[in-house]
Design a protein that fits this description.
Strands 3-2-1-4-5-6 form a 6-stranded parallel β-sheet. It has 14 helices and 9 strands. It is an alpha/beta fold. The longest helix is centred in the middle third of the chain and has 29 residues, at 167-195. Helix 9 (167-195) crosses helix 12 (235-252) and helix 12 (235-252) packs antiparallel against helix 13 (258-271). Helix 8 (142-152) links the parallel strand 8 (135-139) and strand 9 (158-163).
């Protein structure tokens, strides 16, 4: 009999991930506080759960995708929460990007109940979630990961066992800090180039073929030049992940500089009311500071 799977939290990232798990052919139950968020999944064949508890009651593997640590800890740890409600041997997998201290609270509580817990933050944004190409950073027991692997492979082929719980979200924070710093360096360089009279698409082609190239460059033709800042990865989420990175750095007494500069840019975007826009929108703030206006076409 196929493994029964549940998914709680089908928002911007969770919805396409849940859709790909559903395509994997598992008996599938979903729940979100917003019924509208579940509509497309129900139409595709998922069962709409009446509550988070309904999902865990009917599932052997439960995936969760929530905004931040307080949401995750409430869902798992409050009376009647997932850990208290789950049957022994259930596998609970949190896909959220949270403080490493959160999964470290959840795992021992789950073990006491005979329930398994994995943290599995993902990288690749909404495009990767839709294409099922996400990288998945799993913290927890590798043997439990092996059992859950057929489900996780539905959302991404690159599944990494990175260590005990807490390690997954540490790696995720490192990745997002580096991605953000790369993007901001690209935006500053691009702004200088445009003010010097260069075509932004010429800069893109040259740097792409040179040593300064990175994935951040793809934001030039897809977002910055066409001025398309609809959210793939929102500013407020990047700010949260930079908070996580800086918190870990303080705890470990690691001196960091670039992450602090990156977070100041995100906070400036938040102050400008751009928190729900894609992180690429920070380019517009750099343009204003430089008193330059980007051409809409390269």
């Amino acid at each position: 009999m196929a493994t029964t799977v549940g998914f709680i939290g089908v928002g911007n990232m969770g919805n396409p991930m849940a859709g790909n798990v559903l395509k994997g052919g598992f008996p599938f139950t979903v729940f979100d506080k917003s019924p509208k968020a579940m509509e497309n999944l129900v139409q595709a064949g998922a069962r709409a759960g009446k509550s988070a508890q309904d999902v865990v009651d009917s599932s052997e593997v439960v995936l969760t995708c929530l905004p931040a640590s307080p949401d995750v800890e409430a869902l798992y740890l409050e009376p009647g929460g997932l850990i208290e409600r789950a049957r022994p041997n259930t596998i609970l997998i949190d896909l959220s990007s949270v403080l490493p201290s959160t999964p470290r609270k959840l795992e021992p509580a789950a073990k006491k109940r005979g329930v398994h817990f994995l943290e599995a933050p993902v990288s690749g944004g909404t495009a990767g979630a839709k294409a099922a190409t996400l990288a998945i950073m799993v913290g927890g027991d590798p043997q439990i990961l092996d059992r859950a692997r057929p489900v996780l492979k539905c959302i991404g082929p690159n599944i990494f066992s990175v260590g005990p719980v807490g390690a997954g979200n540490t790696v995720k924070a490192i990745n997002n800090m580096m991605a953000c710093v790369n993007s901001l360096a690209m935006m500053e360089g691009l702004t200088l180039g445009v003010k010097a009279g260069l075509d932004p698409m010429v800069i893109y082609e040259v740097v792409k073929a040179s040593s300064g190239g990175s994935k951040a460059l793809e934001r030039i033709p897809t977002a910055i030049v066409p001025r398309k800042f609809e959210p793939g990865f929102k500013v407020f989420l990047m700010n949260k992940d930079l908070d996580t990175f800086n918190t870990i750095a303080k705890e470990l007494h690691v001196p960091v500089s670039f992450s602090n500069v990156a977070q100041r840019y995100q906070q400036a975007a938040l102050a400008a009311g751009l928190g729900d826009m894609d992180t690429s929108v920070v380019a517009t703030l750099i343009e204003k500071l430089a008193a330059v206006e980007f051409p809409k076409k390269g």
